[in-house]
Amino acid sequence: MTIEPDKILFRKAKLEDKAALLVLEQAVVDAERPYNSQIKPHAYYYNLNDLLQSENAWLQVAEYDNEIIATGYVQIRPSKQSLTHANHGYLGFMFVSPEFRGQGLNKKIIQHLMSWAESKGVYDFYLDVYNDNQAAINAYQKLGFKPSLLEMKVNTKS
């Protein structure tokens, strides 16, 4: 779908957006389930109340024709003691509705999020992405992200 860029509104999410955000959260869960078969049927990833109200978080949305079409958040978190930075920005809830993908919305949301965190003195950013999700990896690498730490898992029950 081609959109009219001047009709996209980028803004901070509000409490009134929570119902729409819960629907989009399930879209994220559904999109990630192929990469991890152990995700519960009705999993919830995010504490939306905290993300919407915390002074240490910014939940960004893109809206088109009064519908939220893209999301993302940055949360300022304490870093490991072994690192040179005391805090970092953790990025999550990165989602663009399928019909709006490929038009740079994710990039713009990440730029908004990083700019907000930088205004708070945070310049180091982390995010998680499934190793097999090459499309997401490519998108993040275009923004300057590089692989940092590989999480490995095993399930001994199966």
UniProtKB/TrEMBL annotation:
It comes from the Bacteria. InterPro entries: Acyl_CoA_acyltransferase, Bact_Acetyltransf, GNAT_dom. PROSITE patterns: GNAT (PS51186). Residues 8-158 form the N-acetyltransferase domain. Keywords: Acyltransferase, Transferase. This is GNAT family N-acetyltransferase.
